[in-house]
TrEMBL record:
Keyword hit for Iron-sulfur: no
General function of this protein: Mitochondrial membrane ATP synthase (F(1)F(0) ATP synthase or Complex V) produces ATP from ADP in the presence of a proton gradient across the membrane which is generated by electron transport complexes of the respiratory chain. F-type ATPases consist of two structural domains, F(1) - containing the extramembraneous catalytic core and F(0) - containing the membrane proton channel, linked together by a central stalk and a peripheral stalk. During catalysis, ATP synthesis in the catalytic domain of F(1) is coupled via a rotary mechanism of the central stalk subunits to proton translocation.
Species of the source: Apis cerana cerana (Oriental honeybee)
One matching Pfam family: ATP-synt_A
Protein name (Swiss-Prot/TrEMBL): ATP synthase subunit a
Record keywords: ATP synthesis, CF(0), Hydrogen ion transport, Ion transport, Membrane, Mitochondrion, Transmembrane, Transmembrane helix, Transport
Transmembrane intervals: 20-41, 72-95, 101-121, 133-154, 174-194, 201-221
InterPro entries recorded: ATP_synth_F0_asu, ATP_synth_F0_asu_AS, ATP_synth_F0_asu_bact/mt, F0_ATP_A_sf
Length: 225
């Protein structure tokens, strides 16, 4: 049983060598595979990417204030990066980079902390007043400050854990189903159909999780402004 559990979770092990861990080089792969513009006439792939970027810009523009809409490109780039990493991690023998809190916390904590510093520096009165919601009872004000501070601090943790937990659970289900298929060859067509449906669901989940990660960050950015 111990060996089975180690085999299941070894896909999420970031260490491949004591001296050189090549797994973390996967974070630079989206930069290499993203198509470059060399032609006067756009290809179909670039046209689809352009439509996706315009759609995401219009979606994020609704949330963001008009004064700060130039910063939307940061969140669009973050979403595209996470989406590519999530989809590529579904391929065999590819390291699941976004299943680790190390990368997710690096993305969420830095942006969230910069938003918080920006809010405190520009309008610390609004930050302090936000700790006590409107129409709060007087005898609960002290507890409301503690609760609001805790909810504010755990924001980057919830972002990271949500992304990691969804990817780990999806990969484990696909791995367990693959082990089940190898043991019961007689019902192979049904198992392959189920696994293909789960793989399709996992692809959509990878896209949705990147969207949720970026949309929550831009909501935090809008609150800081």
């Amino acid at each position: 049983m111990k060996l089975t559990l180690m085999n299941l979770f070894e896909m999420f092990d970031p260490s491949s060598n004591n001296y050189l861990s090549l797994n973390w080089l996967f974070m630079f792969l989206p930069i290499l595979v993203f198509p470059s513009i060399y032609w006067l006439i756009q290809s179909r792939i670039l046209y689809i990417i352009k439509l996706l970027l315009n759609f995401m810009y219009n979606e994020f523009k609704i949330i963001s204030k008009s004064k700060y809409q130039s910063n939307i490109i940061i969140f669009i780039s973050l979403m595209i990066y996470i989406m590519i990493v999530n989809i590529f991690s579904l391929m065999p023998y590819i390291f699941t980079l976004t299943s680790h809190l190390l990368l997710n916390m690096a993305l969420s904590l830095t942006l969230w902390f910069s938003f918080l510093i920006y809010l405190i520096y520009n309008n610390y009165i609004a930050f302090l007043s936000h700790l006590v919601p409107l129409n709060s009872p007087v005898f609960l004000m002290n507890f409301m400050v503690i609760i609001e501070l805790i909810s504010l601090i755990i924001r980057p943790w919830t972002l990271s854990i949500r992304l990691s937990a969804n990817l780990i659970s999806g990969h484990l289900i696909l791995t367990l189903l693959g082990i089940f298929i190898s043991n019961f060859i007689s019902i192979l067509p049904i198992n392959l159909l189920i696994q293909n449906m789960l793989l399709t669901l996992e692809i959509f989940m990878s896209i949705i999780q990147s969207y949720v990660f970026s949309i929550l960050l831009i909501l935090y950015f809008s609150e800081s402004n």
